[in-house]
Amino acid sequence: MFCVKKVSLYLAVGFFLILAVSCVSAEVSKEAVVKKTSLASLTLRRSGPDPFEQNKRLGKGINLGNALDAPNEGEWGVTLKEEYFKIIKDAGFDSVRIPCRWSNHALKEKPYTIDPNFFNRVDWAIENAIKNDLYVMLNVHHYLEMNSNPNGNSERFLGLWQQIAEHYKSYPDSVLFELLNEPDKTLTAERWNDLLRKALAVVRISNPHRTVVIEPTGAGAIYLLRKLDIPEDDRNIIVSVHYYMPMNFTHQGAEWAGEKSKEWLGTTWTGEQRQKQAIRMDFKKAAAWAKKCNRPINLGEFGAYEKADMDSRVRWTTYVAKMAIDNGWSFHYWEFCSGFGAYDPEKNAWREPLLKALIPPGK
Ligand code: BGC
User: Fold this and answer.
1) 335 lines ligand 1 (CB under 6 A)
2) What does residue 101 show for φ and ψ, rounded to 5 degrees?
3) How far apart are CA 315 and CA 248, in angstroms?
4) Check: CATH 3.20.20.80 for 52-358?
5) Is the CB of residue 252 less than 8 Å from the CB of residue 265?
6) Which of 60, 123, 154, 257 could form a disulfide with 261 if both were Cys (CB 3.0 to 4.6 A apart)?
């Protein structure tokens, strides 16, 4: 009797299991046929948008620099205006990078609360970008203490990301998070690799599908890509580098680049073979790393300061932008309307040769 009961129980359970499995597989195969989905795309759907596609959508972009990254907006001469977003879109750009100095607008002590007024202002900027169909790269910029005292600031850095990530978790896929602008100095590759994992984990709690952007140390240096160690299993990442070589050309007369920058005044960039070759070789190194690691690349900053002559600036900018495009990278020119400005805020007009260097006509 006991045995008969047990056997019929097994039979019943077995029957339901077969029924359930065949129903599920019928559903799956139906879905697979209907949607023609491959296993690969199913995997991608689970982990968020394809970062290579996201990088294409970032496309050609510009930094809204010296505004929300100044100690307080306006202190470095730039206050964002609603019209800027349309001007940028109409000129042919696909995205904006919005550098933000959160560390100046948050409590120094736990729980490191971010000033709601600053959040409101960043919300306003992001929403205007979205309204104008621009992708957004939002970052933590000028957290300078991270580079001078990483151990003393790591917890606060993670606390800021916890709040930023939570705040923007329901924003569309077109908003990307960049963990930190230009990790450098005592924030060595070893420390940064450890910290970026922690920051990514914090972001992933509220934003499992958000595309995240990460720079190598040396202020986004190409030659330090080899030391960048990002979690292998997180594929929804774009790696971003910065490029200002040769510094004596791009940073001539730059007040923040020290005394030596005065001696650089008058340096030209004529575009002769050896100058182009130097840039090409740097980009080749980054491209080789990207291929080996199967990561998309963004050129998050590049530009030449206004103290250089305009013809050289245009030649250099044209060449660097072309290198990025030829390599299939997205880019963000540094920057919109300040010292490197492609746009003249007094004349309310683009500096056409610079704009053409970034958005070649007909492309
Ligand atoms: C900084 C800017 C600076 C630019 C070029 C950026 O990362 O945030 O303040 O003008 O690099 O040096």
Assistant:
1) no
2) -95, 75
3) 16
4) yes
5) yes
6) 257
Match 């030649």 to its residue by tokens.
315
Cα(181) to centroid(ligand 1), Å: 9
Query: Cα of 276 to ligand 1 centre, how many Å?
Result: 23
Ligand 1 atom closest to residue 254's alpha carbon, by position in its atom list: 12
On whether the pTM is more than 0.85, the answer is yes
The C-alpha atoms of residue 24 and residue 57 are separated, in whole angstroms, by 36
pLDDT of residue 363: 61
Mean local confidence (pLDDT), 326-331: 98
Supply 155's token pair.
């917890």
258 sits in the region (left: phi over 0; alpha: psi -120 to 50; else beta) called left
pLDDT band of residue 226 (cuts 50, 70, 90) is very high
Give yes or no: 301 in active site.
yes
What is each CA distance from 137 to 152, 176, 177, 227, 322, in whole angstroms? 27, 5, 6, 23, 21
Pairing outcome for strands 135-139 and 175-178: parallel
Strands 175-178 and 95-98: unpaired
